[in-house]
Amino acid sequence: MKRKKLIFIVLIISIIMSTILLFDKYYPSPGLSKVKIGDRMAIWAVTIILLIYYVRSNSKPQLVPSVLSSEKVANKERDKSNVSFKDVAGLEEIKEELQETIDFINNSNKYRKMGAKIPKGILFYGPPGTGKTLLAKAVAGETNSIFLYASGSEFVEKYVGVGAKRVRTLFERAKKEAPSIIFIDEIDAIGTKRNLESNNEKDQTLNQLLVEMDGFNTNETVIVIGATNRLDLLDEALLRPGRFDRHIFVGNPNMKAREQILEVHTKNKPLDKSINIIDIAKKTHGLSGAELANIANEAAIIAVRNNKTKISIEEFDAAIERVLAGLEVKNPTVLLKEKKTVSIHEAGHALVAKVLKTEMVQKISIVPRGQALGYVLKFPDEDRYLLTEQELMNKISALLAGRGAEQLVFNEVTTGAKDDLDKATSIAREMVCSYGMSSLGPMVVDEHYIKHNYEMLRVEIKKILDKGYKEALRILEENKDILHHVSNTLMEKETINSEELDDIFKIYEKPMDCAT
Ligand code: ATP
C-alpha cells in the first residue's frame, strides 16, 4: 500500500513537471529555458511509464483474499482471536455443541488415536446480528487458533479463476499455520445452488472450496466455519457429510439471553442504580444481539450528550426508541390536519392492540421518526414460540386498526397504512400458504401451486384480511370515546406512555354490575 502511495505521489509530481515543460515550449520562461531537450524527453518518458504502470497495477485483480493481502502480511499474533466464550452471552446450547469441536482441536491426539476424524465444517445460519461471527471468533480464542476471516463476496470476481485462486491461497495459509479457523461470512455469495445457467466463475470458486474441504487430511487441524442468513439457498454438495455437515441455527435471543447480552455490553458502563436490566430485556423483544449491543452503546452516547455521569433508564428508553423507530425528525413540518390524522391512526392501533391484548403498548407517539409520522411501541409480555390462529387474527386486526380508525373518523383513508397493509397481508399469506389456516385446509402451498392457483389464494387471503378489518372496526366503534380521548391527548402532548394509556381506559371502564 505504501509503495502504491509513493508511486502515486511521484506520478503526480512528474505530471505537473511534464505539463509545465510542455507549456514552456509555447510560453517560454527564463528559468526553464536552461532545461535541455534530452532532460525534457526523459521527464516525459518517465511520466508516461509511471502512468501506464499505475493504470495497469490498478486494473489487475488481487489473487489473494483481503485477509492475506500485502497490507495484511502474515502476522500470527495479530490473527489470534482474543474473544472467548465469556464474551458470548446466552446461546448456551450452541456453546455446549461447540465444546466438542474445541476439545478436538485442543486434544486432537486423543481423538486421532481412536480413529475419529476431526469435523471439517460447521455452518452457522440464522438472522443477521445474532452472534455468528462472534461465536467463530470465540472458537478460535478458546483453541488459541489463527482466525482467518473472509467474506463470501470477496471471492466473487468478474475474472474467471480469481475467486478459485483466492480460496486456494486462503486454505494454503490455514494449513501452514494450523491450528486455524477459516471463517467464511455470507457463504451464500459463493455457495448457492449450481444450475444450468449459472455463472462459470462462481461455479469454479465453489468447486475449489469443495476440493479444498475434501483435501485437508486429518493431521491438519483446520476448521472451516461458514455463516449464512439463507441455508435454503446453499448447494447440496456443500452440505453433505465431510463438508459443512454440522448446521447450527443461531436465532434471536430469548428473554434470558437478552438479559445476559445486555449485561455483557453494559459491563464497563456506569449505570444508574435504578436500572433494572430485566426490564430493558423485556422491552427489547425480537431484537438481535447486535441491536442490543447498539442500544447499550447508544444509551452511553445519549448520557454523554445529556452531560450525565451515569446512564439512567431515560437514556436506555431513548436508545431503544432510536433503534426501533429510527432517528427523531427535528423541526418536522407536518400540517395540523395531517397531525390529527396520524393521532387518530396511532390511537386506533394502540386501542385495538390493548383490547385484544396482542402486545403490551409501551408508548404511542406522533413525533415523526425515520419515515414514520407516528408509531406505537409495543412488546409481548413473554417470549412466544407458538401462536394460535386467533392470535394471528388479532395481530391482523391491530395492524389494520390504524386504517380502520381513519375510516371511522374521517370517512376516508390515507396512504399512512402502507406498512401496516404489507405486514397484515404477509401474516394472512403465511396463514394460507404455510400454516394451513384457511378453508383450503391443512396444506402447505408451494411456489408452483401459487403460480397456477393465484386467484384462489387471493380470495383466501382477502377473506382473512376482511375478517380482521371488520373486527378492528367493531372494537373502534365500541370504544369511540377512548379513541378520541387518546387522539386528543396525543395532539396535546405528542406522546403517551403505558400508564397514561391505562388511566384513559380506566375513565371509560364500565362499573361492574352489582347483584341486587
Ligand atoms: P451477520 O449475519 O450480519 O454477519 P452475525 O450473526 O455474524 O451477523 P455478529 O457479527 O457476530 O453477528 O454480531 C454483531 C455484534 O453483536 C457482536 O460484535 C456483538 O457485539 C453483538 N452480539 C451479538 N450476539 C451476541 C451475544 N450472544 N453475546 C454478546 N454480544 C453479541
From TrEMBL:
Q: What does this protein do?
A: Acts as a processive, ATP-dependent zinc metallopeptidase for both cytoplasmic and membrane proteins. Plays a role in the quality control of integral membrane proteins.
> Where located?
Cell membrane; Membrane
Q: Which SMART domains match?
A: AAA
The record lists the membrane-crossing segments as 6-25
Which cofactors is this protein said to need?
Answer: Zn(2+)
Q: Which residues bind Zn(2+)?
A: 345, 349, 420
Q: Describe its partners and assembly state.
A: Homohexamer.
Signal peptide positions are none
What is annotated as the active site?
A: 346
Q: Does the keyword Protease apply?
A: yes
**CDD domains given in the database record:** RecA-like_FtsH
Q: What gene makes this protein?
A: ftsH
Can you list the GO cellular component terms from the UniProt entry?
Answer: plasma membrane
Q: Which Pfam families match?
A: AAA (PF00004), AAA_lid_3 (PF17862), Peptidase_M41 (PF01434)
Matching InterPro entries: AAA+_ATPase, AAA_lid_3, ATPase_AAA_core, ATPase_AAA_CS, FtsH, P-loop_NTPase, Peptidase_M41, Peptidase_M41-like
Q: Which UniProt keywords apply?
A: ATP-binding, Cell membrane, Hydrolase, Membrane, Metal-binding, Metalloprotease, Nucleotide-binding, Protease, Transmembrane, Transmembrane helix, Zinc
Residue span, AAA+ ATPase domain: 118-254
The EC code for this enzyme is: 3.4.24.-
Sorted alphabetically, which PROSITE patterns does this protein's record hold?
AAA (PS00674)
Full protein name:
ATP-dependent zinc metalloprotease FtsH
The record gives the membrane topology as:
Multi-pass membrane protein
GO BP, one example? proteolysis
